[in-house]
Design brief:
about 15% strand, EC 2.4.1.-, coiled coil, Rossmann fold
Length: about 500
Amino acid sequence: MGSFGVNGEAETLKAIFLPMISTSHLIPVVDMARLFAMHGVDVTVITTPANAAVFQSSIERDSSRGHLIRSHVVKFPQIPGLPEGVETINANTPPDLRTKIGEALSILQVQFQELFRLLQPDFIVTDMFYPWSADAAAELGIPRLVYVGASYFSHCAMDSIEQFAPHAKVDSDGEIFELPGLPHKLEMTRLQLPDWLREPKPYTYLKKMIKESEKKSYGSLFKSFYEFEGAYEEHYKTVMGTKSWSIGPVSLWVNQEESDKAGRGHVKKGEGKGTDERLIRWLDSKEENSVLYVSFGSMNKFPATQLVEIAHALEDCGHDFIWVVRNNDDEARGFLKEFEKRVERSNKGYLIWDWAPQLVILDHPATGAVVTHCGMNTVFESVIAGLPLVAWPLFSEQFFNEKLVVEVLRIGVSIGAKEWRNLNEFGSETVKREDIGKAIALLMDGGEESEEMRRRVKTLSDEAKKAIQVGGTSHNNLKDLIQELKSVKLQKNNNKSN
């Protein structure tokens, strides 16, 4: 797809993209940067060395295709007690190191603002976790677009909680209450809410700053598409009173070639092509829709007791499976290594440690369903592939996303998780192997309910592909936004000349 009528250097828009330094935010913001570059915008992505390593190969491929895109790498500050090269927040980052990374980001803010001035962009796109960038853009007289993570739905649900406080009107943590003011009737319990929504925490005030900075910005960008959650996109615009554009699914739009799918995300040295070939051979040997893909994203943590329950459920379910395992519990490592040997011998299971070529796996005909933490990157990628979901929310906004998947879109089944937990904690809840097995069976063993879910998710998959084609909703949104940003640039230049 070509650019939207770019006719020369004077009309070419220059943009800076500043992603957050956690993989779940980093990858979609870089995908958005690549998307704008695909359509004629001159893009610079500002990041640090370890974070650049996650996406640099994608940038280089796009540049070789003639797109105007590059990385600008800023050295990460050396904070006492922070090991060199630790620049990314993930599941294995201890709380004390998170604090130090936060200190480093505060130092980097001055450098980021200086780069905004030096590079003279026509607009900036920054992650929601950089609320200061709204004022920085205002000082430069340029638009700031904010990348808002998760779904429109989850932000509407959170606004309902903040505005109406229905959780304060029940007598216990397990009592059900309704979320007022939303397009659908939805119910939750206090235990399923993020702790910062239940009562004021430091993060509560950060979220308030983020919301205020969005209202000061030119508008927001979501990786969603209208056919997925259009009612909530409209509701969100009304609630926020700001402009917003859904320009997704961005992962589908910018990762259409096999090299992009295979290279997306971080591949450690010594892994990659050889590992992928073995994985693909294994998948090729399986029947269509017969493999269950189990992945809980880059930020999950499970105690040994929960990992044991998952392992037994997968072994007992009778279906082939791929399980992406995060190495964050030394107590469980020995058990998991033995489990891996056992399922390899039976040829029923395939364990991937840490990084997985997720787009490649989801696209393979053998993959039939996904067990997910309900992070929206995985939800969108599963929908694109036309795969129903077992929803197992853990933290962040994921219990809201579960409601979207299971009750609004009806493309998944709940595992039955009852308790939200903090990102840094294991939590006290252990989901039993019997409950895991029941959810898997509902999707993988066939039956009318399963087939209905598959039909619905296949329809959404088709709609996702249409959304990014010429004349599609996301294509039109991006086209209109770029034209609008060109008009802002033209107006600014006219004002200067006058």
